[in-house]
Specification:
The chain is 65% helix and 0% strand. The chain is mainly alpha-helical.
Length: 110
């Protein structure tokens, strides 16, 4: 069962957000500022960079998720999951995805 908030609780939350004192924001800022989280943050950022590149490649090719899925012999829901970062992509699938969008894959180790 969902918690029901009182008007006073909702108003307090709204005020804290608009005043810039949102506890969730402070917690998030502390997480990103903590050097112990740097490796995880970097890994997540790299994953998001890949997700953005997948999405942009498909859009530049003028393909819908369904059209791309048909080219890859998979389902639209799988393409959607890849583009949301919800599925891990193999190198083979990445190369096929790129080819279907008229692109090539280049890997750089830093």
């Amino acid at each position: 069962m969902k918690k029901r908030y009182t008007d006073a609780e909702l108003l307090a939350d709204i005020e804290s957000v608009t005043a810039g004192t949102d506890p969730a924001e402070a917690e998030r800022d502390a997480y990103f500022a903590d050097p112990a989280n740097a490796a995880e943050i970097e890994e997540r950022q790299a994953r998001m960079d890949l997700v953005i590149a997948l999405y942009n490649a498909r859009k530049e090719a003028g393909l819908t998720q369904k059209e791309l899925a048909d080219r890859l012999g998979t389902k639209q829901t799988y393409i959607a999951a890849l583009e949301r970062g919800k599925k891990n992509i193999t190198f083979s699938t990445l190369a096929r995805y790129a080819r279907a969008c008229g692109k090539k894959v280049a890997v750089t180790l830093l």
